[in-house]
Amino acid sequence: MSVDAQPRWFDAQAIGTALERETAPDAAELRDILNKSLELQPLSMAETVALMRVQDGVGVGRIMAAADEVKQKVYGDRIVLSAPLHISNHCGSECLYCANRKSNKAVERKYMTSPEMREAALKLIRQGHKRIFLVSGQLPNADIEYLAEAISILYTAFDGVGEVHSVNVNVGALESREYTALLESYVGTVLIYQDTYHEASYRAAHISGPKSDYYARLNAADVAFQAGVPDVGGGLMLGLGPWQYDLLGIVQHQAHLLRAYDTGCRTLSLHRMRCAPGSNMQTPHPVSDADYLRCVAIARLAVPYAGIILTTKEPAGLWRDGCSAGASQLLTGSVANPYGNWIDNPEHKVPFPIGEDCHVDEVVRFLLEEARHLPSFCAACPRLGRTGEEFLSMVRECGMKNQCGPNSAASFLEFLLHYATPYTRMIGEQLLAEKMDKMTTGEHGAAKRLLTKVRAGRIDEFI
Hints:
It is built from 18 helices and 11 strands.
């Protein structure tokens, strides 16, 4: 498949036709759709639109409850925590909403050096992180060697107790050999965010450079799978295009990937568009808080096997509610976030702020006090070969939940013992005991064995 060819699987007319439905489903139709999701079967575009048309409070409540039930069935009551690490803001694309855009003069350009990468990794490890998302601008040559070096550096960082176990990379559309180079560096999930499937919105925002090729972006997941990448992640920048259209784009895309490769995107990131320093675009299709939560829930129901990723850049109450509406992962603040502290004064341009922004202890404490979810730092699956088609098979058979509960408990206890503040450790131990009591007999036994090892001083215990 040529990366610049229009993909046959994408049918904009079919999306438009599906969205013509204006009526809400009756009680029987809504029940049947939700039951299909609870059986972990992906929804069709028509069924997804039917959920979008539900407006009454009772019906929306049923959708939210079903989304949480699906998430519990697949992954259990845990929220995986990861941190982004921005290593470069050099970029060859002109994306109007992005601070990295090529013509933006409000920012200082920088590549993190190898020592800076190691220090940033150590800062994240000292917070308790084990999972990192690498982020950089996209140059025409894609800087694959630079990304591969960064992955290697992160995997060798060690603070005496903790280390990075999973490095995922947010990249653009690459050539097959470039995905292969990332695989050789033991990359985790390769994240390829479409941002929007709505062609007019995409082209209006991405006006030049590598990312302006709309068809290459649509084809990128195919190229990655064909290159042997087992785990690919997708994502939307909600607000760049109509969110209803974009959700149907995801449904259509996942159906194609399942047909072609017997697997789909392992994760789906749902981030709302926000103004960045030096950006040159307002949000074309603003998404309200209520619609954001509906989008999270419908995405969970439509693609039940995927990990739904939210970000702590959203208001705390919103990502808390999102965790109860189907989300299973949370992207926290970073020690090197170029969108955090840039200022307009040209004499004080800062590419990467110094210090720690949104410390993970704060996120954990909020999860414990407000959301009552079990924070997880587990990265066992890729190291045990649970990737791609095998991972999806386990999800469909509800086998992941039996692993996720005990592994999440062990990784969380390790965090509490080595990195948490005293108060967070106290309430964390209390919630951990509560969650243990709610596990099945098999999960409880496995978790108890792992926790005994962790309390005895063992590190990185999982099944």
